[in-house]
TrEMBL record, chain A:
The keyword rRNA processing does not apply. Keywords: Exonuclease, Hydrolase, Nuclease. GO terms for biological process: DNA metabolic process. This is DNA polymerase-3 subunit epsilon.
TrEMBL record, chain B:
The keyword Ribonucleoprotein does not apply. GO terms for molecular function: [protein-PII] uridylyltransferase activity. The lineage of its organism: Bacteria, Pseudomonadati, Pseudomonadota, Alphaproteobacteria, Sphingomonadales. Residues 160-219, 225-285 form the CBS domain. CDD domains: CAP_ED (cd00038), CBS_pair_CAP-ED_NT_Pol-beta-like_DUF294_assoc (cd04587), NT_GlnE_GlnD_like (cd05401). Pfam families: CBS (PF00571), cNMP_binding (PF00027), DUF294 (PF03445), DUF294_C (PF10335). This is CBS domain-containing protein. It comes from Parasphingorhabdus marina DSM 22363. Residues 15-113 form the Cyclic nucleotide-binding domain. Keywords: CBS domain.
Amino acid sequence: MKLSAPRWLTQGLWQRRWNQAREQSAGTPLEAYYSNTLPDPDHLVDDIEIIALDFESDGLGTDAALLEAGWTGMNSRAIDLSTAHRERIAALDPLQEVAVTVHRITDSAAAEGRPEREVLDELTGILSGKVLLAHFARIEAGFLNAACYRQYGTPFVGQYICTMELEERWFPAPRTADGLRLGKLRAQYGLPQYRAHDGLTDAIACGELFLAQIARRGSPNLKLQDVVMGA
Amino acid sequence: MEIEEILAFLQRFNPFRDLPAEVLGRISRQIEIRYFRTGTTIIEADEDNAHFNIVRSGAVELRIGGTELSHRLGEGLCFGYPSLLRGSRTRNQVIALEDSLIYRLGKQDFLALHEKHPVFRDFFQADETQRLRKAVESLRNARDGNGGHPMLAVPVRDLLRRKSVTFGSPQMTIGECAGLMAEADVSTLPICENTRLVGIVTDKDLRRRALARQMPHDRPISDIMTADPITLPEREQALSAKLIMSRHNIHHLPVVGDTDAIIGVLSANDLLTRLGMNALHVVAEISEAVSPEAVAQAAQKLDQVIVYLVDSGVDADHLARFVSAIGEAAHKRLLQLAEAELGPPPVPYALVVFGSLARQEQAGGSDQDNGFVLDDSYDPDAHGAYFAQLAQRLCDGLNSAGYVYCPGDIMATNDRWRQPLSVWKKCYRDWIDNPDPDNILNTTIFFDMRAIAGASELVADLRSEVLQWSSANRIFLSFVGRAAAKTRVPLGFFRNFLLEHDEQEGDVLDLKHQAIAPIIDIGRVHALAADLEQVSTVERLQKAADTPHLSESGAADLLDCFEFVRDTRFRHQARQIRAGQKPTSNLDPKTLSGFEREHLKDAFKVIKTHLDSISRSHAGGIS
């Protein structure tokens, strides 16, 4: 799969979705988010505020329950850990067994979490004017969108940078089936191995990969449109 | 909320591991993460710096401003703090050697930690000499506290077996004191005025000074006591007691408290019981050996002594003196055995040793450097054969005992170094008056000399004249100074050994020639310039401190350096011996711990500074 340059720029599709969502958000907590204008595609990446985000869930579908959210503020040069958050989310349904094995989050631990609504209020409250970053960001975009529908009845439209997509676009190479996984890519950049699989660690791990990718790319004056994920 | 991954990382490294978890949790949230690709500059020299840095992964290279030195830092090591502590611009450039993930802490956060936490403060010293001092201290503490054999590190008061002490007063009679000793079953009686120690009496004194001389028993004890005996404060370590006893050949040492009040008497046996096998046992075994073979056999135990003393937490200076005591005993005993066979010497002579044994700085694997200074009544035709044979037996015996033949042939078996006093004087005179720049390095070893057997006054005579000549001859001093300054601190090598990736197979760090010898040279130059009679490097530096050429702090820095590099060598030798290898001064840089690397860097910098300073003050011929 070869991804072309972001199409939303020319097609205006993304802008239409944004406008639509803004109208729907009136009277919801997302109103503030949509009231802000988004960073211009011509903005220098170096000047953009980014939130690296990772959800832990009990599945991959849009109906999956979110178990944990981890995020941290950063830019293209540095990750600012004073803005780091790790929030457990109270489970709505009993956990699927798979998730327990993969994420080592048990029912009782998950039950200690905060209600999804609260966590979402806090997260969307800081997203205004920022760009989201995740590894395989389509998943995070789907989760966030689904959660906003669940809690506010409004879609979430945002700009995402996907480190997996960037890697394929910037540094194409023959790879094995799992060659684009976060851990594999990090190892190639000499980044340390993490215990993995809590939301915050993964968010930081993805943020570090992005720093490494930007450093390797080495081109000054990158613009937002050069890094943002295609629609 | 702490960031677990970062907390877990910090807990693996000094000094963070010593901070409370909640402090580390706070630090984890103050960190900013950065990534630098290989070859990019992380910190520029001579710029303002606002961050303290920790290498999370990868490696960086510090290019130390104003020197050719570079230093490689890997995971868990820190940089960029001296400028924060000094409040000045950066001195060193820092470059990413590998793709590196760096944790950064803002200046204010770093300074707050520095202010609040002593462990943090001790670890991050702006100045390499302070870091070195801390390193030496922590080495000692680590060994004292690590449950090895910290026997020599205990205060003497803990070694005293008797809880109460029996003592007499100067007004008591000899008879009363003898009665008191018999009653208390002690062989040594401290004599005190009130509780202040004024003298000591032993069984031996009673025998020799009273009974044998038929002295009336009603004479006051003050007639036969040893007045003002050597004492040991109770807080002193067992090691000091050991050294004092062996140096003065005494077996009982009064231990005193703060006000000179007697607390007890420490006996050599108390110490021996405590130590088990030890260096002095080996010295005693050598001194009683009945043949050169027996000397060799006893001297083989030197290696085990080194391991034992390293494990006991003995510092490098004391360790070297113990090792030297064994070397000295071997020389003395071999000579005695040879004389016993060949008959008494026809004319007086002295065995003079040069180099490390003269300075009492021997380590494992030392070779021999010696000569005979013969009385001027020496007649080559009549006496030549005797001394040639004596020399042969000594040098062969030493070789068998592990003190291998001197590669430079500085041995009494060499006719040149078996000469009457007047010839030795002429020889030194020639070195001093007509210094040969190509040869001066080969002769400096002769300026560290000590008589260890025979008519030591011959050597004393030679030394005092040599010192007078050399301190008065500025040209000579300039040559020695210049030669010393040429001793290259292993700058080029250092770079390689720190850059593991570029390391050639077979690269070694020669601690003797690259780290220890330069400090010895510095000590010698100061001693020669200031007409100091001291021979050991430590004493030379102590004595030279606060002279125009060497500041008090400069001397202290050099002493720390000397201790650190010698300590590193002894620990390295102990490892070699344990592994069944011969002890050497060459070590594979890969075996150095991060701690050793870090502080060797500091040591080299101090050495370099002082070599430069010597070169400035003496090389011009202006002393």
